[in-house]
């Protein structure tokens, strides 16, 4: 394509970088290209900063390399290298030569336990992505680190169920905030959260909508580890095999469908359709594909994460509209969220 040949031409890049009207754009483009090349290293700096406790340490106040070395167990040399890398990424800030405090990105991350838990979980993803070509070529036929971590079925042992449920619960607050701002749950009488894990989402809804009756449906080993408010009903089962409880006029699927391949996702939608009364709504909230401003998160991050998990894919809201029709829903509405990198929303109804 001509456009790509021009943009890829060394002569054009040299000329554009020096022409005042193009210089800003071409520098930003070059910066983005280098970020793509170096992004893996940036993620490792973040992981190192989280694993060593550097962010918490810097949050306590400015500190020099010796203090960082003492607290993290690294050599002074290694501590300086990590602090400088963290400062370059805005995780830290060098307030005076050789003295660091928490940077703006570091402060934002430190206040977000869900993001920190994901950072600590990422070594499993990095292990699966160590050879991306091999991962793509094996075409989901071999077990992966992520497929072993996300092991869903009625025989899942309590330890596995607790590990993934705690990870999910830690990042649920930000998802619930998006969902509650985008959809008026208080208009309903009874809400069932399908695959609701340890109940973090329904607990947030319970607080925001005091009149709503609430229930969680999940696998027995997951609910066995949940500490739920007595106002929330527990429904044990396998949503591929156990009929859902009836009488709930709103069913939520929060970060559920993207974990499943199309035929399984369709079964989940059909099960929800069967359980909803006339006028009931099915609310889907999860990071989706093809969303303006969040495409990298949808198609690149979740696309590869779910590939490595050996199940599921990120879908566009339009794909959910079509799957909803196939499952027997006639109505579809897309609800915009302020932070689609965290979750987008689609509503299905009759
Ligand atoms: C990715 S987690 C999402 C948890 C929660 N909705 C959230 O957003 O934090 C998927 C949830 O679906 C549950 N799940 C998976 N397969 C299931 C099945 N066949 N029947 C019932 N629950 C299932 C898992 O146990 C887990 O709690």
Give me a quick take on this structure.
By secondary structure, this protein is α/β, with parallel strands linked by helices. Helices cover 53% and strands 14% of the residues.
What does this structure look like?
- There is one protein chain.
- This protein is of the alpha/beta class.
- It folds into two domains: 108 residues, Winged helix-like DNA-binding domain superfamily/Winged helix DNA-binding domain (Arc Repressor Mutant, subunit A); 218 residues, Rossmann fold (3-Layer(aba) Sandwich).
- Helix content is 53%, strand content 14%.
- Strands 6-5-4-7-8-10-9 form a seven-stranded mixed beta sheet, with helices on both faces. The chain has a three-stranded antiparallel beta sheet with strand order 1-3-2.
- Helix 13 links the parallel strand 4 and strand 5.
- It is globular and about 65 Å long.
- Bound molecules: S-adenosylmethionine (SAM).
- S-adenosylmethionine binds next to helix 11, helix 12 and helix 13.
- S-adenosylmethionine (SAM) binds next to helix 11, helix 12 and helix 13.
Topology:
Elements: H1 2-8, H2 10-18, H3 20-51, H4 54-59, E1 63-64, H5 65-72, H6 76-88, E2 92-96, E3 99-102, H7 104-110, H8 113-128, H9 132-137, H10 145-149, H11 158-170, H12 172-182, E4 190-194, H13 200-208, E5 213-218, H14 220-224, E6 232-236, E7 250-254, H15 262-275, E8 281-286, H16 295-308, H17 317-326, E9 331-335, E10 344-349
Parallel strand pairs: 4-5, 4-7, 5-6, 7-8
Antiparallel strand pairs: 1-3, 2-3, 8-10, 9-10
Helix pairs in contact: 2-3, 3-6, 3-8, 5-6, 8-11, 12-13
This protein binds S-adenosylmethionine.
S-adenosylmethionine (SAM) binds at residues 152, 165, 168, 172, 175, 195-197, 200-201, 218-219, 222, 238-240, 254-256, 259.
């Amino acid at each position: 394509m001509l456009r790509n040949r021009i943009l890829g031409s060394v002569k054009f890049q040299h000329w554009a970088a020096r022409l005042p009207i193009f210089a800003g754009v071409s520098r930003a483009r070059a910066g983005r290209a280098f970020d793509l090349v170096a992004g893996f290293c940036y993620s490792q700096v973040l992981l190192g900063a989280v694993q060593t406790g550097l962010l918490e340490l810097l949050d306590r106040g400015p500190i020099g390399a010796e203090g960082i070395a003492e607290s993290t167990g690294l050599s002074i040399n290694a501590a300086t290298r990590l602090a400088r890398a963290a400062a370059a990424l805005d995780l830290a800030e060098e307030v005076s030569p050789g003295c660091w405090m928490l940077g703006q990105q570091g402060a934002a991350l430190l206040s977000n336990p869900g993001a920190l838990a994901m950072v600590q979980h990422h070594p499993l993803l990095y292990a699966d992505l160590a050879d991306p070509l091999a991962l793509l070529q094996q075409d989901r036929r071999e077990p992966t680190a992520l497929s072993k971590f996300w092991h869903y079925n009625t025989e899942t042992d309590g330890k596995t169920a607790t590990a993934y449920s705690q990870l999910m619960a830690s990042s649920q607050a930000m998802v619930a905030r998006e969902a509650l701002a985008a959809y008026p749950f208080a208009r309903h009488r009874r809400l069932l959260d399908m695959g609701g894990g340890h109940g973090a989402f329904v607990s947030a809804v319970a607080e925001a909508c005091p009149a709503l009756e609430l229930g969680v449906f999940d696998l027995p080993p997951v609910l066995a580890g949940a500490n739920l408010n007595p106002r929330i009903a527990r429904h044990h089962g396998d949503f591929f095999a156990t009929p859902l409880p009836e009488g709930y006029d709103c069913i939520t699927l929060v970060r559920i469908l993207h974990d499943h391949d199309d035929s399984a996702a369709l079964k989940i939608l059909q099960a929800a359709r069967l359980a909803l009364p006339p006028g009931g709504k099915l609310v889907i909230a999860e990071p989706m594909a093809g969303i303006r401003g969040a495409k990298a998160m949808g198609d690149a991050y979740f696309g590869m994460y779910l590939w490595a998990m050996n199940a599921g894919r990120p879908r566009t809201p339009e794909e959910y509209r079509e799957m909803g029709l196939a499952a027997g829903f006639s109505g579809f509405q897309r609800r915009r969220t302020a932070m689609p990198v965290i979750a987008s929303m689609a509503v299905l109804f009759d």
